[in-house]
Every structure is written in C-alpha cells, then in structure tokens.
Amino acid sequence: MKKNCKTCPKKCENCAEHQAKAFELEVDEEIQQERLSLFWKKYSWLVYTLIILILACVLGFESYSSWRTKIRLAESNLFEKSVLLSNNGHTEKAVIGFEELSNNGKTGYRVLAQLELADLSAQKGEKEKAIDLLKKAVQSTETSDPLHQITVLSLVSYQLDEADPAALLETLQPVLEDTYFQGLATELAVVLLKKQNKQDEAENLIQKALQNDHLAPTTKTRLNSLLGE
After folding, report:
1. What is the pTM of this model?
2. Are 5 and 15 in contact (CB under 8 A)?
3. What's the rounded Cα separation, in Å, for the pair 32 and 72?
C-alpha cells in the first residue's frame, strides 16, 4: 500500500502528479504577478494621465455649466428689465438693452431680443428694419429650435401683403410639419394659397391640421371658419 501524501488529507494514488499540478499553478500565479508588475511599471503614466484627463473634463464641464448658468441669468435679467421699460413707455432705454442682447447675447434671449426689436421697429413704421431683424434671427437659429419656428412665423406675417406668396409658403413649409405651431402656420399658409387661387390645396391643408389633437379649440374654430370662405 502506498503512503499518504503529505500535502493531501486523503490517500492519493498519484501523489507525484498532484504535486506537479500544484507546482504549475504556483508558477503560473507568480508569472501573472510579474507580468502585472511589468505592465504597471511600463504603463502607469498612461493610467495616471487618463485619470487626470477625466478629472479635467469633469471639472471643465462643471465650470462651463456654471458659466452658462451665470450668462443665462444675466441675459434673463436684462431682457426682463428691457421688456418692463418698453411696456412702461421707455422705448429708447428698452432698445439699448435689446440691442445689447441682439448683438452680444449667447442664449435664446438674443433671439427674443431681436423679436422685440422687430416689433418696436414695426410700431415706428420701420417695416424693412423689422424684416431684416427677423431674417437675422431666422438665420441664427436651428430649424429644430422653437424660437426658429416663431421667428419664421413672424417673418411671414410681416411680409404677408407684399412678398411673393410662393416664396413665403416655401419659407413656412418646415413649420407646417410641426405639431405645436401647425395651427398658426396653417392659417398663414391658407392665406398664401388663396392669394395664388389654390383653394383646393388650402382646404386640404386645413383638413390635415384639424386632425392634430394638440390644436387649441380656438384655433380649430378659426380653421373651420376658413373652410367656409
């Protein structure tokens, strides 16, 4: 009978093989540790660099967010102050604030200021200036931005009587696909289509808009009234 293996609590009929496997595992573990040690010595600088870059990005994003918040708050205050001045009859002082935002604004208040300046210009009979301001606002906004759609509607409204109906309709087309402003855009489009004697297209456009569940009841009433004209 074979003696018990010193490294095994049970009788082992193949003690030599058992010891060999244990030795191989121990050697493999030492080799892996050595490889990890060599890898760390060789690439530790890269790991530290990545950590620093990640921290810098996080801090940079937080700083940028803080800066944007401060800018937005400052422009919000200036816009509100200018609106109050305008409503109280201090037009010249209001224009100074609106022009500052229009020329140097970095948030959506820049576009809102351009809309206000256009309205004030139109009130003074300076319609061409108002149209130029609205064109500037349209060009400086993204098509997916609600402010862009508002400026398009304003621009078309200001030119409704004298500009080419077909050209205005082309300008208005992207807004017609938007569910939120579809009602107002449809009303303007119907006027432009009727100017071109396209009654059937106008009625089809109204019917399409009436299928929009988001339209306000008053808007639906106005559109239904246009069907009978």
Report:
1. 0.62
2. yes
3. 55
